[in-house]
Structure formats: C-alpha cells, structure tokens
From TrEMBL:
This is Thiosulfate/3-mercaptopyruvate sulfurtransferase 1, mitochondrial. It holds the Pfam family Rhodanese. Keywords: Repeat, Transferase. One of its GO terms (molecular function) is thiosulfate-cyanide sulfurtransferase activity. SUPFAM superfamilies: Rhodanese/Cell cycle control phosphatase. InterPro entries: Rhodanese-like_dom, Rhodanese-like_dom_sf, TST/MPST-like. PROSITE patterns: RHODANESE_3 (PS50206). The keyword Transferase applies.
C-alpha cells in the first residue's frame, strides 16, 4: 500500500527530513527483510532524490568502524 503524497510528506516532515537532506536507509540485520529498499523506493517515488541504501547492515558498518555517529541522526 502506498500512502498519499500528503501523508508521506507529513510523516517525513515530523521526522525532521527535508528535501535538502541526504537520507541513508538500512535494514537492522544483514539478513533483514529488505525494508530499506522499499523505503528508498518510496522516497524516490515522492521526489526525494538524495536517498541511498546502506550496503550491509548498520551493525557491520559499526563493527568495521566505517559508521560515523557524529554525522548521523537516527530516526
């Protein structure tokens, strides 16, 4: 099910995400349900161009010291 553009915009705005933000989505585990792909697709569907999918789980990025918490805001 796809929300209306207004509903999606309202929800995203409540999370503090604006058009100028680069959104990086990820699944919680390496064996995740690929929900991040759907979130990426929905952002693109509603015109947000600065959205990426993290390659691998956040846990893996933290383990390899690639993740920089100071640059991220978890929603």
């Amino acid at each position: 099910m796809i929300p209306s553009p207004h509903c999606f915009q309202t929800l995203v705005a409540k999370m503090g995400v604006g058009n100028e933000d680069h959104v990086v989505v990820y699944d919680g585990h390496s064996e995740g349900l690929m929900a991040s792909a759907r979130v990426w697709w929905m952002f693109r569907l509603f015109g947000h161009e600065r959205v990426s999918v993290l390659d691998g789980s956040l846990r893996r990025w933290k383990f390899h010291c690639i993740f920089q918490p100071s640059l991220a805001q978890e929603l």
